[in-house]
Write a structure and sequence with these properties.
Blueprint (H helix, E strand, L loop, with lengths): L6 E2 L1 H8 L6 H9 L5 E3 L1 H14 L3 H10 L3 E3 L7 H10 L7 H13 L3 E3 L17 E2 L3
Parallel strand pairs: 1-4, 2-3, 4-5
Length: 139
């Protein structure tokens, strides 16, 4: 079992909650291999709520319910990191880097956490603390 504190991206969170998602079973298996709570940021939660609203009107509440149950916690506030987030978005302008991606990279730097639960292959290119690679949680 992987210890708590793993970074959590939007894709696996949505796949876990959406039984029709192609990656639903994979997400269930990956979440089962990890100890809660995961770490994420409010941008990931906002993305997940937006995507879940398209699947189910109750979807956003389900995203929030997982936080209430201790599955994940927001352990990063962008207010203290605007310059670094801006720098990351500029650095990865040639990628489809989102605000959430930049926040997760910064979260990795703040918490010195390289492990991430994501389906986004761009995290194989992204670096935190200038040159450190992410370690993907896989099945």
């Amino acid at each position: 079992m992987n210890p708590s504190g793993i970074l959590l991206d939007t894709g696996p969170l949505v796949a876990l909650l959406s039984t029709n998602d192609a990656d639903h079973e994979l997400a269930k298996n990956l979440f089962a291999k990890c100890r809660a709570p995961f770490r994420c940021c409010e941008a990931v939660i906002a993305e997940a709520c937006f995507l879940m609203r398209k699947v189910d009107p109750d979807g956003p509440a389900e995203v929030i319910a997982l936080a209430r149950k201790g599955v994940y916690e927001t352990s990063f506030s962008a207010n203290e990191h605007w310059q670094r987030i801006e720098d990351l978005l500029k650095k990865y302008a040639n990628r489809p880097a989102s605000f959430a991606d930049a926040c997760l990279i910064r979260c990795a730097e703040v918490h010195q956490e390289q492990r991430i639960l994501t389906f986004d292959t761009d995290f194989a290119i992204y670096r935190w603390a200038r040159n450190k690679r992410f370690e993907f949680i896989s099945d």
